[in-house]
Design goal:
Blueprint (H helix, E strand, L loop, with lengths): L6 H9 L2 E5 L6 H16 L3 E6 L16 E3 L2 H10 L2 E5 L11 H7 L3 E5 L10 E4 L6 H13 L5 H14 L10 H12 L4 H9 L4 H11 L3 E3 L4 E6 L1 H7 L9 H6 L6 E9 L2 E8 L6 H5 L4 E2 L3 E6 L3 H26 L1
Parallel strand pairs: 1-2, 1-4, 2-3, 4-5, 5-6, 8-9
Antiparallel strand pairs: 7-8, 9-10, 10-12, 11-12
Helix pairs in contact: 2-5, 2-6, 5-6, 6-7, 6-8, 9-10
Length: 339
């Protein structure tokens, strides 16, 4: 069932040929699946799409990369290519800056820019946008767009990447954004040939030994506050090297900490390079944490958010924890008054 007005976006797609697709830094299955689906569909429509992201494609999502459709942005390599694009589509992004160092180059082009997203935010700078905070995933919005154009465009490769986006962003259909709409979409994609066990195994049963060693290090040094309701951990560049892990493999760590009994919110500080810290926050639902992320130019959902901070590791830990502690104290005060 069509819920949104896709006509302005379909008109722009029809009027343009060289279309750049991108999603946020620290890419996840939803953003990647959304732009992969758009890539395949645009090719079927006779367009010339390209995918450019600021970060490397994580190994567990290599299933999407048949034909090498994902490229990591490099100014020296992609300058001429970017100068020729005439339309930009960003998925799973509430602001252009979330796509990383590619954003300033694209904004300078001053060409039409489309946003398809389900995050809260103002979504400025976009020519047209479809934003639905109640949508299970960005992939579910892309699914609706493709159905509006022509449902027959959803062949097995498109169905698989859409399913990856939906499955990963709903936590394998367990998170609070898992709606009847999510199950209806999943049912249709399975009817089109998607094998859920194959997708699940590729994403969640495909970790390297280095990643598992790093998880072991992480769980040996978790810090607890507020009677165990807040848990946080640090992953340094030195630990990553010692474990033999790759930066693009480090995903799902805050979810693992959040799964501990009694923990209501978790945060992981990841040192991607000196003075550059990636912050990932997760909540079970009693603490809205995207406001903390926004204080550090990040964003996300109420219970899953993140940011990247340009400061030394110890300073970033101190600054972010200060804001989180304020949040916990405020919530606890409200609970005390209500009780």
């Amino acid at each position: 069932m069509q819920k949104h007005d896709w006509r302005p976006i379909i008109r722009l797609i029809n009027e343009h040929d060289r279309i750049l697709l991108s999603s946020h830094v620290n890419p996840d299955g939803d953003g990647l699946g959304s732009i992969a689906a758009l890539f395949h569909v645009l090719k079927k429509l006779g367009k010339n799409p390209i995918i450019l992201n600021s970060d490397v494609l994580p190994y567990e999502y290599s299933l999407m990369n048949e034909g090498g459709i994902f490229q990591r942005y490099d100014l020296a390599i992609h300058h001429d290519m970017i100068s020729q694009i005439d339309l930009i589509i960003m998925a799973d992004v509430e602001k252009p800056e979330r796509i990383g160092n590619l954003s300033s180059v694209l904004l300078a082009r001053n060409i039409p820019m489309i946003c398809i997203d389900h995050h809260p935010g103002e979504h400025l700078h976009f020519t047209f946008k479809v934003v639905d905070e109640n949508a299970p995933s960005a992939a579910s919005l892309v699914y609706e767009l493709i159905q509006t154009i022509d449902t027959n465009l959803i062949d097995l490769p498109v169905a698989e990447v859409l399913y990856i986006g939906l499955m990963t962003d709903t936590g394998s259909f367990c998170y609070q954004n898992t709606t009847s709409e999510a199950f209806s979409m999943a049912s249709d994609l399975v009817a089109r040939g998607v094998i859920p066990s194959k997708i699940f195994s590729q994403i969640y049963e495909n970790y390297s030994p280095g990643r598992m060693r790093l998880i072991g290090m992480l769980f040996q040094d978790i810090h607890y506050e507020f009677d165990g309701k807040l848990a946080w951990a640090v992953v340094s560049n030195e630990q990553i090297k010692k474990a033999g892990a790759l930066m693009e493999e480090i995903d799902g760590f805050p979810e693992a900490i959040r799964s501990i009994r009694g923990v209501e919110a978790s945060i992981v500080f990841l040192e991607t390079r000196p003075n550059c810290i990636r912050i990932s926050l997760r909540s079970k639902g009693n603490y809205v944490i995207n406001g903390v992320a926004s204080k550090f130019n990040g964003g996300g959902h109420a219970f899953a958010a993140g940011a990247t901070v340009e400061m030394p590791l110890k300073e970033s830990v101190s600054a972010v924890l200060t804001e989180l502690r304020k949040l916990f104290l405020h919530n606890d005060e409200i609970e005390g008054v209500q009780n």
